[in-house]
TrEMBL record:
Name of this chain's protein: Interleukin-12 receptor subunit beta-1
Assigned protein family: Belongs to the type I cytokine receptor family. Type 2 subfamily.
Annotated Gene Ontology cellular component terms: external side of plasma membrane; interleukin-23 receptor complex
Pfam families attached to this UniProt entry: fn3 (PF00041)
Annotated TM spans: 580-604
Gene3D superfamilies the UniProt entry points to: Immunoglobulins
Name of the encoding gene: IL12RB1
Superkingdom to which the source organism belongs: Eukaryota
Domain Fibronectin type-III: 479-573
Length: 694
């Protein structure tokens, strides 16, 4: 029930009829209090009904004069619920009874018994004059004492208390350190003044003013936004009248929880286990999510101040599926297939998504299947794949790509729901396929009971396949080439070959087999060799026997073709005595040649000495040395008689001596000897003095 400014209860209407009805209701509103005042006194039993009791209160009319008691009485009209008076009480509340007193005139008073409550609602039908000035106060009775509040005088119909905003209708948007709260104006409550108060966890309230609301239909308030803490806001409103004091404030609204502007970023780690036999691997997140401290009014769930964290999964493999991304509640651990994924932990608050933490989970590329689990056949009608069917699988996703190539070259195909064949195998066929001959492909097959959920896929198999017909590949392209034989000893050789093209496909090449046989075709042995090796040693061979050796490459299901026969043999060993005799003959020949050279050299020297004797060297003789005392004399032999012997003309010598100081300071003779032909038969020896020796 509401009442307009004219004080008429009920709904307003327009037009003459509405005006007439309104006038009658206004008249009754004025007459009812007067009639109640004119009624004779009623007993206490008459006041048991609702309404204001026009009798004296059931206690003595006295004031204890205590400083405590009721205070801050306010009375007003509530737009949607009649009238209300509220007050505060200071002091012990045990056994306290409150009475709201109302007087139109000093001699016409009534009271409401409120009990222990500190507020009371009533209507204009309860005997209180709402269009006239009335005086109201509160009397509180405790321990045979009466405490009274200060009196207030007002027209109840003219004093209006607005409603607070509804927290559920408030929207918010934040940016640049401010949050804008906005809500729809309550009906018939325009022109309000709005205040807010806010607090963080463990702090006191802080009051703020939103100002007078001028916009029609909507009200708003710009409040501070904290970057790293959640806040609790409450709002209240009151009516402003020109030239009159403001009406009472509304009660505070329910808490409005505002999260921080920047949610804390998660700091987690993750670990990935190996793929299990059922085709799924466990991904575990380690660490604790950031905990945001909330104010008291925001501790409940879904209060709006909290930060939530969710996991977002994007499946990168099998791009032809209908849905690749999903967001779900963060849980630990996750069970995922062997596909490639992008995993993110996403933070979210009322303002939207916050900072994320992302990881890339690579695809498991190593083989995850038993040999022969995938059967690929190539025929005139196309290519067909067969693999073991999975229980509960509705859809299979097959993808293949050349080994080592970019994911953009990956081919993807989805199979519709199918029942397995009698052998329990699932099938996929295509007439013309992109698989090239002699190319290694990585093939992965996934299965899912719910293809629309990326988290529901599991790995059926992951293997490698050599493109083309397997039989042709093993017999032709997989044949080892360039077999080379090297001799190691008189009974062993080393056999080397180039790797088979099948070795480039992990798991396709099972082993090499090397066999050798003699010239008569007798098989000597077959040796298995690991697929990672391309060399083997053959022992126990016979010298002088011709052999042939061949190599083949086998897969897990088929034997390869033998390489071209490579002949080889080991020469017969010559006797050691013959080798020793050859060595001795060689050494003897060398010694003989050396001895003949030495003898020839010595003989030639003797012959040269007899044929060409050496010339004398007078300077080296002591014959021409003279005492030092005779160094200054010049000797001359004038006649041939001075010489005791004769010298032939051919032996004539001329000796020129020059005197120089020796090492001890004495003169010494320097001689020059030269053949000198002369017509005289007497040789002349002249001693040429250099003058006085110095």
């Amino acid at each position: 029930m509401f009442r307009g400014e004219d004080g008429v209860a009920g709904r307003s209407s327009s037009g003459p009829a509405g005006h007439c009805v309104g006038s009658m209701e206004q008249a009754w509103a004025r007459l009812v209090p007067l009639l109640l005042l004119l009624l004779p006194g009623r007993g206490a039993e008459a006041c048991s009904t609702s309404g204001c009791c026009f009798q004296d209160p059931p206690y003595p009319d006295a004031d204890s004069g205590s400083a405590s008691g009721p205070k801050d009485l306010t009375c007003y009209r509530i737009v949607s619920a009649g009238y209300e008076c509220s007050w505060k009480y200071e002091g012990p509340t045990a056994g306290v009874s409150h009475f709201l007193r109302c007087c139109l005139k000093s001699e016409h008073c009534c009271y409401f018994a409120a009990g222990s409550a500190t507020s009371l609602q009533f209507s204009d039908q309860d005997g209180v004059a709402v269009l006239q000035l009335v005086t109201l106060w509160v009397e509180s009775r405790a321990e045979n004492q009466t405490q009274k509040s200060p009196k207030i005088t007002l027209k109840l119909h003219s004093t209006v208390k607005y409603d607070p905003p509804s927290a559920r209708d408030i929207t918010m948007s934040g940016s640049a350190g401010q949050v804008l709260l906005k809500w729809e104006t309550p009906a018939r409550q325009d022109g309000a003044e709005v205040q807010f108060r806010h607090r963080t966890a463990g702090s006191l309230w802080k009051l703020g003013n939103c100002g007078r609301q001028e916009d029609a239909g909507f009200e708003s308030c710009l409040c501070p936004l904290w970057t790293d803490a959640a806040q609790e806001f409450q709002l209240r409103r009151r009516r402003l009248r020109p030239g009159a004091p403001g009406d009472p404030w509304s009660s505070w609204s329910s808490p409005v929880c505002v999260p921080p502007e920047h949610p804390p970023k998660p700091t987690l780690k993750f670990s990935v286990e190996a793929l299990r036999p059922h085709g799924r691997r466990q991904v575990t997140l380690h660490g604790q999510l950031p905990q945001l401290e909330l104010p008291e009014g925001c501790l409940g769930s879904n209060s709006g101040g909290e930060v939530t964290y969710r996991a977002r999964l994007h499946m990168l493999s099998c791009t032809c599926k209908t849905k690749s991304t999903m967001t779900f509640q963060l849980r630990k651990p996750l069970n995922l297939s062997g596909a490639a994924y992008d995993l993110a932990v996403v933070s979210q608050n009322r303002f939207g998504p916050g900072p994320n933490q992302t990881w890339h989970i690579p695809a498991q590329t190593h083989t995850h299947t038993e040999p022969g689990a995938l059967n690929i056949s190539v025929g005139a009608d196309g290519t067909t794949m067969h693999w073991p069917a999975q229980a509960g699988a509705k859809t299979y996703c097959i993808e293949w790509q050349p080994q080592g190539q970019d994911r953009n070259l990956t081919h993807c195909a989805l199979t519709p729901p199918q029942d397995p064949d009698p052998t329990g195998m699932a099938t996929y066929s295509w007439s013309r396929g992109p698989m090239e001959q002699k190319v290694c492909y990585h093939i992965t097959i996934f299965a899912s009971p719910r293809p629309e959920k990326p988290i529901s896929w599991s790995t059926v198999l992951s293997t490698y396949h050599f493109g083309g017909d397997v039989l042709v590949a093993a017999s032709g392209a997989g044949r080892p080439q360039h077999v080379l034989v090297k001799k190691l000893s008189q009974d062993s050789v080393s056999v080397d070959w180039t790797p088979s093209p099948l070795s480039t496909c992990p798991g396709v090449l099972k082993e090499y087999v090397v066999r050798y046989q003699d010239e008569e075709g007798n098989l000597m042995s077959e040796l298995p060799v690991k697929p990672t090796e391309t060399q083997v040693t053959l022992g126990g061979l016979r010298a002088g026997t011709a052999y042939t050796v061949q190599v083949r490459a086998d897969t897990a299901t088929l034997q390869g073709a033998w390489s071209q026969p490579q002949p080889f043999s080991i020469e017969v060993q010559v006797s050691r005595l013959f080798d020793l005799s050859i060595l001795l003959v060689s050494l003897g020949s060398f010694a003989s040649i050396l001895l003949l050279g030495v003898v020839g050299y010595l003989s030639l020297n003797r012959v040269v000495r007899h044929l060409c004797p050496p010339l004398p060297t007078p300077c080296a003789s002591t014959v021409i040395e003279f005492p030092s005392s005779q160094g200054k004399q010049a000797w001359q032999w004038a006649s041939p008689a001075d010489f005791p012997e004769e010298v032939s003309l051919k032996e004539a010598l001329v000796v020129n001596t020059s005197w120089e100081k020796g090492a001890a300071g004495f003169p010494s003779a320097m001689c020059e000897v030269s053949d000198f032909p002369t017509s005289s038969s007497i040789p002349v020896i002249s001693l040429l003095g250099g003058g006085e020796p110095s």
